[in-house]
Amino acid sequence: IAILPALAAALVCRTESDEACGACDACLRVARFMHPDVRFLFPVMTDEDDPESIAETLSAVAQDPHHVFTYEKASSIRIGITRDILKELAFRPYEGRKRVIVLRDADRMREDQCSALLKSIEEPGASTVWVLTTARLARLPATIRSRCQRVLFAPLTEAMVLDVLRNRAGMAEGDARLSAALASGSLSRALEFREGAGPAKLRDDAMNLLAPAIRNDPAALWLAAQKFMNFGRTGRDSLRRMVEFHQLWLRDLLRARYGGEGMTLVHEDRAGEIRTLAAGLDATEIRRRLMVLEELLRAIDGNISADAAVFSAMARVAGQRLGEREWPRHSTARWNY
User: Is the pLDDT of residue 313 over 70?
Assistant: First the structure.
């Protein structure tokens, strides 16, 4: 989102290179979200007026360019502010040559909000620029998508994310390495780990599920799965993140086994353990375990008991081959029910 104020500033500040200078009054006010010709909309919880809450969020974004937006499930773009902006569009810009409206996470608009904006997005006028951002393009109605010029941003490389986390976000080396590897090219996803217990603690919680499975202690594994699930209260996002930690662990096993001496590991603090395990695993076995984790991801999204799915997956990731190449035993033949 940090590039969007710069884009808006470029429309009110002219330099020889057509880029925002970042130093003039217009640029500084855009960066603080105080320019009258730049409006920044983002999802909130209710349609009721709450200017103090919105002002606090805008202040946080202005002070921290790496601010990460978090939403409640029901958050959406407020229809009240949308209508106010539509009234403003009937007039010329106050100061600049253009008026810029940045709509963050536009996929969170409700149907009535999309309908209200459709005409203005289709015919914005010569002095209005709409900027809609989303990471879930399919959730935007086709009527909105067809009226926009699509600009795709490639995922950032792991090295680029790591550099930002180290030098700009001030994260510790180990946490930065884990966060960058989990980011999948998204800086905001990596920055989410600045809050809470940190990625190292989450990694250890995820990997602790394997300990009873390696000991071949099914009772302890079942208790560990129940504890991790918090007896049904752990959400799907936490489950997916747990799976991602295991996938990273297996990636490090591949690197340790086949990557050569200079290959860096994400779990550098546990490099000795990883190299010891990698000596006894070949690529075929690691691939089998990755396929088990992919099956667990499908189970998380399906109507399957999560604790049972975690129990089965951890047992098989630890090396057991439960039920492979066996017809499921049942007292009644499958063709009879």
Answer: yes
Q: Coil, helix or strand for 46?
A: coil
CA nearest neighbour of 310 among 325, 295, 324, 326: 295
Q: What are phi and psi of 259, to 5 degrees?
A: -85, -10
Contact 255, 265 (CB under 8 A): yes
Q: Report the C-alpha gap between 267 and 215 in whole angstroms.
A: 22
pLDDT digits (tens, 9 = 90+) for 209-232: 999 999 989 999 999 999 998 877
Condensed to tens digits (0 to 9), the pLDDT of residues 87-103 reads: 888 888 888 888 999 99
CA 127 to chain centre: 34
Q: Which of 13-22, 152-161, 171-180, 310-319 has the lowest mean pLDDT?
A: 13-22
Quote the CA–CA distance of 259 and 282 in Å, as a whole number. Answer: 13
Closest listed residue to residue 137, CA positions, set 103, 101, 105: 105
Residue 132 has pLDDT above 90, yes or no: yes
> Among residues 285, 282, 283, which one has the least CA distance to residue 324?
285
Beta-carbon neighbour count of residue 203 at 10 Å? 25
Token pair belonging to 138: 């399919």
- The distance of Cα 116 from the centroid of its chain, to the nearest Å, equals 28
Contact 50, 58 (CB under 8 A): no
pTM of the shown model: 0.75
Rounded CA-CA distance 314/293 in Å is 9
Q: Residue 69's closest CA among 56, 77, 57, 59?
A: 57
Bridge-based pairing of strands 99-103 and 128-132 is: parallel
